[in-house]
Amino acid sequence: MNKTTDEADLAARIRGMLDQGTAEISQKASLRLYEARCDALRHQGAAVAALSLAGIGHTLGSSFHRHYRGILALVALAVGAMGVQVWQNEQEAAALAEIDSELLGDEVPPSAYTDQGFLEWLQQISESDEESLPE
Amino acid sequence: MGNNPGNGVRTSSLASRSELSDFLAGVERRAFKQALFAVRDEDTALDIVQDTMLKLSEKYGGRPANELPLLFQRILQNTIRDFYRRQKVRSTWTTLFSSFSSSDDDDSDPLDSLPTHEHSPLGNPHGSLEQSQVVAAIEKEIEKLPPRQREAFLLRYWEELDIAETAIAMGCSEGSVKTHCSRATHTLAVALKAKGIEL
Q1: Span A28-70, pLDDT tens digits
Q2: Which of A88, B28, B42, B140 is most buried by a 10 A CB count?
């Protein structure tokens, strides 16, 4: 008999003895092992749930890939419309600011332009100026 | 795994709840003993087995049933190694305060650790007692083996993993597995012979 066979033979006999030893563990240990097994089985669902959530993510992802051209076109259109709106607002604000600055820079106070008498006088002055102009 | 009945058929179907339950029920006592040989404390050994079961179920519960034995053993050995690491850190502190502790634990009689029989063994009571003594003596000698030798011996010959699977579970080469197994078997043979135990 060679060395390997001797080793396997002795190991097989020891295995038999160790198996006998497992039958003699305490009732307390047996109960805790049973509880641990039940607890572990309850947690098997956690992995399955995680896989399900991953499946939902995969479905959403694949739906995006199928329709991404249309989605990108809609996004570009929305961004363009918003850009035009912002540009128009800026133009109006700039025009108003220019009028305001001209009014404030004039010698006549801005409140005079709301006075009806001042406006009539201003009109008369401009008409007389036109009449006095040489032909 | 290995020569275990039913493991010769390699299927790729995922483990059902009942398959996982059957697997755990079949392996839990041996796993407890393995952990007990390593840590020599029943509560700690039970904690290790509980952690192992939980990790297997949470992370690998959806894997094919034929992969469970190797995965379980890898997790079990890693959990035992984690215990050793924690113990090593703890011992550096405890040795500072426990220099007066007795060191005669290794000289204790193996018969002191004989389990209590809760069920009457069948057959001749005298013969059963002798058998239990032999089992206790063998378990004591396995406890005394260096950790890597014990790990290799138990995975290879008790869990019946083949050499490649044992190497994967231990995270070492197949050559190392053969060396550890050979040394462990030789040590056990010498120790049992010295005790007058013939198997």
Answers
A1: 999 999 999 999 999 886 654 555 555 555 555 555 556 677 8
A2: B28
In a domain, B133, yes or no: yes
Residue type, B127: G
| Cβ contact B134–A17 (<8 Å) | yes
Q: What is the pLDDT of residue B158?
A: 95
Evaluate whether residue B103 is within a structural domain: no
ipTM score of complex: 0.73
Q: B151 lies in which domain range?
A: 125-199
Residues B88 and B1 in one domain: yes
Contact with chain B for residue A82, Cβ under 8 A: no
pLDDT in tens, B131-146: 888 999 999 999 999 9
For chain B, list residues with pLDDT below 50. Answer: 1-11, 103-108, 110-123
Q: Are residues B162 and B82 in the same domain?
A: no
In angstroms, the CA B91 to CA A70 distance is 66
Name the minimum distance, in Å, from the CA of B117 to any CA of chain A. 7
User: Domain total for chain B?
Assistant: 2
- Which residues share a beta bridge with B64? B14
Closest C-alpha among B160, B146, B157, B156 to residue B177? B156
Residue B114 belongs to a domain: no
Alpha helices, H only, chain A = 3-22, 27-42, 44-66, 68-105, 116-131
Question: A12 CB near a chain B CB, below 8 Å?
Answer: yes
Residue type, A101: S
